[in-house]
Every structure is written in C-alpha cells, then in structure tokens.
Amino acid sequence: MAKFTSVKAIVQKEWKIAAIAGFAAVLMACGGPATGTPDGNETAARVNGKVITMEEVDRGVKQQAQGQEARLSPLELAGARLQVLETLIQQEVMFQKAEKEGTVPSEDDITVEINKQKTASGRTADQIEKDMKEQGMTEAALRDQVKKTIAIQKLVEKVTGKIEAPKDSEIDAFYNGNKDAFVKKRGVKLAAIILDPSNSGNGDQTTDDQSAAIKGNEIVKKLQAGQDFASLAREYSEDQSKLQGGDLGYMSEDELKQAFPAQITADLMNPASQIGKMVITQSQGKFFILKLQDRSDKDEALTLESPGVREQVQKALVDNRKQLLAASYQAIAMNEAKIENFLAKKVVDNPNELSGARPAGAANAATPATNANAAAPSNTNANSSTNANTAKPAANAANTAKPAANTAKPAAPAKPAANAPANK
C-alpha cells in the first residue's frame, strides 16, 4: 500500500512523549537563577500545590545537554533551567488531569514499559545504570517519569478519541483542493545500515572512524555471503531505522541530492542500476550501506484510487484534528491550573546577576545546543525512558501525526508533500 513516507510528508512526523524537539530554543531563553548550584530540594515551582524541585529541573538539563552542561555559561544555564521547568510544569498540569480522568497506569504497566525501553536502547544493564547515574536518575525517578508519560498519552488518546472519521465528501474536497501535492516524484525507495562513529550513547557498537570501518567491513562480508539485509540492519544499524529493518522509505531525487554525494544519487537513479543493488557511502559523518529497493524514473500523478492515497488523506485529516483538540485541551488545563514559578520570579527580582561568559577552557568547545541536536535523531527512542520529564505534553502526548513545517496553518488541514507515496 502506498504510504506518505517522504521527509516532507504531511504525516511523517509523530508526536513523541519522551523527547523535546531541540535544545537550541533552550539557549535562546534569557534569565534564570543566580549562578552556582542550587539546593536540589529547593522549590522551583508549584502546580496546584504540587512541588517541582530544582533537582528535577537540573536532571532535565543534564539529559538535554548530554553531559555538556558544565560548558554552559551562567546565562545559558539559567535559560536551560527555565525552559526545562516550563516543560515540567506543562507535564504536571496534564498528569494531574490524567489522575482525575483515571488514565494513570498500573505498576505492572510501568515495569513492562521500562523493560521495553531498556531492551530497545540496545544497551547492557551496566551501561544503562551508568547512564542513569550520570544523569542523576534513580529507579524511582525513572518509574515516575514513565508513569507520567503513559498517563498523559492515555489521557490525550481518551480526549482525541472523540474525533470521528472524515466523510467521503471531506476527503474528496481535500484531494481536489491539493491535487498538485499528490505527485509521486521521480526517486527511489531505500533501506540502509547506518554506522555512526560518534559516541552518541545510544548503544552504539562503533565509537570512532576505525571501529566503524571494521564493523562496516564485517557487515559487507555477511551481506556478500547472502545474509538478510533487514536482519543485519536490526542487529547492527546505529539508527532508529533499524526498528523497521533499515527501511528509509521513499526519497525523491532532490532529497537524495541533499542527503548523499552527487555520484551516489546519480548511481541510484541510473536506470541501469538493478533493484537490490547495494552502495556504500559516507555522509554527515556517518557510514551508510544502502540497498536500492525500488525506483521511479518519472513523476507520477496520483488519484484517490491510487493505492493507499484515500487512506492517507483520511489519516491526515484525523491527525490534524487530534492535534488541534489535544493542544486546545492542554491550553484550557494550563489556564485552569494555579501555577507558581519561583525560578522565573528570581529572574525578575535579580535581572543583572547573570554573566554570558563561558567557563574557562570552553570557548572553543561546541555548544550543548549543537551537540544535542546532532545526536537527537539517533537518541530519541533510546533515551525515551530518561527524557520523559522534559517532554512537552501539548506537543506530543497523542502519538498522532504532526504537520510538517511547510504545511498549512492549524486553521486548515496540512497539505501532503509533493513526493509523498511510496509503494511498500
């Protein structure tokens, strides 16, 4: 069935309970507490009387800075704390709603989810314990995070469960108003085994170029011996696509040019290249073993009768409505809650105490914003169990699709990308 899998597709991006989309926005914030290490038991905020401590805030900063928090200037650290606290406040508001609506999971459900996340991370028990210790995470705190994550997800699913399937007339109207978007662009469908030489803390088996090259050669020999590509991707790939057996979906020729060297794009698009061909390349600091699964040599206009198109339009309409309903529900919940942000009050009371200077020796180091963003694609799922208290419930709790940045505004359904469907 055809499926919208382009990187610009309307329903490509899911809301994730367990991750903040980027750390750069944190560093754009200004103000915060005075420099130095605050008392972990100090109250950062209260939500309807429920205390959020500085320990929780700084744990969230550690998780997002990925061990680089020491390189933050006092001004950046203060901004990071404020941003994390805002997220914790939103989460607490929604969790209290979940308690009232009876969507809090049982202890057994929490245990099952934690075990599932630990297994998916690909890390050993010792590695996980080490990561938790570095982030100041206890087992009790982890269970609390996962409990809130599941509770909020179930709450939003309950709220958005009121959304009905769109009528055929609505689907027809959406398609007829966006025909130019329903074009399968000339391109290819790829699978990949990806080796990331950076030590991203995602259960990677390679941590530098040398180990990546050695591992890559081992994988190539296994492929040449006839071993299954998808099975090897699940075992060795250091990318979240391994969960789908390395499937990267459909990429237009333009997207290929943006992602890989020109000669690789030309090779994959060459009609003489047989389906099943494997290509090895390096891009964005990572090693790729690519497998050509399908190719379209020309643009193809799609109709509602094309495989999967009607179903995808229906899903897009439902997901957009769920997104709007979830955001509106949280807006009302936030408006009804009694929120006391003591951290923000410190900024207002002491506006001139913070320095923008970096700690000694950190001037030439990459900022945490850069490091966090660079690692985000490969770490999202693996860190989900330890990032839950920094998630924004409004933006991700429904596990539904979120319109891409270049789509229509919330008032109207988002448009699908022009190169959307790929046969699977």
Question: Explain this structure to me?
Answer:
Helix content is 46%, strand content 13%. It has two domains: 14-162 and 307-399, Triger factor/SurA peptide-binding fold; 186-298, Chitinase A, domain 3 (Roll), CATH 3.10.50.40. The chain contains 15 helices and 13 strands. The strands form five sheets. A four-stranded antiparallel beta sheet has the order 7-6-9-8. A three-stranded antiparallel beta sheet has the order 4-3-11. A two-stranded antiparallel ribbon has the order 1-13.
The CATH homologous superfamily of the largest domain is termed: Porin chaperone SurA, peptide-binding domain
**CA(first)-CA(last) distance:** 6 Å
Q: How is the biggest beta sheet arranged?
A: 4 strands, antiparallel
Mean pLDDT: 77
Q: Mind sketching the topology for me?
A:
Blueprint: E1 3-4, E2 13-14, H1 24-28, E3 43-47, E4 50-53, H2 54-65, H3 74-101, H4 107-121, H5 125-134, H6 139-160, H7 168-177, E5 183-184, E6 187-195, H8 209-224, H9 229-236, E7 247-252, H10 253-259, H11 262-269, E8 278-283, E9 286-296, E10 300-301, H12 309-336, E11 339-341, H13 342-349, H14 368-379, H15 393-396, E12 401-402, E13 421-422
Antiparallel strand pairs: 1-13, 2-12, 3-4, 3-11, 5-10, 6-7, 6-9, 8-9
Helix pairs in contact: 2-3, 3-6, 4-6
Question: How would you summarize what this structure contains?
Answer:
This protein is α+β, with helices and mostly antiparallel strands and 424 residues long.
Task: List descriptors.
disordered N terminus; globular; 13 strands; Triger factor/SurA peptide-binding fold; Chitinase A, domain 3; disordered C terminus; 424 residues; three-stranded antiparallel sheet
